[in-house]
Amino acid sequence: MTNEADQELFRAVEQWLDNNPGKNIADWKKETGYKGPLLKKRNRAGEPIRVSYKGRSTSAQQLRASREKPKTEGEARYVTELKKQIKGVNESTETRFVYGNRPAIAEHDVRLASGGSSEYMSISARI
Question: How far apart are CA 92 and CA 95, in angstroms?
């Protein structure tokens, strides 16, 4: 969660970027001498420029990786077998003909963020 000082920094950078089209955060850093945490610019077409800290999603990625790890030997065997099946499916001539270069993938039946695990997975074709 960002505090009020962070929000003020983000607003200042956003305002500077709005007032200096064609320039980026690196230009702002040179001009102001900023030496703090890395920043990133986020903007979609038709929306105002937004600035935030770069790399804040690391803890979420670590949590997801820990949830994805098999918890038991049986679950680990299941994931290994599923990956072998997927490899066989992707190497088959029929799959290559039907789906082209879009490989089949293993998907969790329940999102990891919603409490899913590697125990419930299935094979999905990328269409």
Answer: 5
What pTM does this model have? 0.49
Please state the domain count of the chain: 2
Closest C-alpha to 37, from 25, 51, 54: 54
Q: Taking residues 10-31, report their average pLDDT.
A: 92
In 43-76, which positions are buried (b, 16+ CB within 10 angstroms) versus exposed (e)? eeeeeebebeeeeeeeeeeeeeeebeeeeeeebe
| Terminal Cα-to-Cα distance of the chain (whole angstroms) | 38
103/54 Cα distance (integer angstroms) = 32
Q: Is the pLDDT of residue 63 over 90?
A: no
pLDDT for 58 equals 67
8 Å CB contact between 82 and 109: no
Which residues constitute the domain of residue 78?
70-125
9 found inside a domain: yes
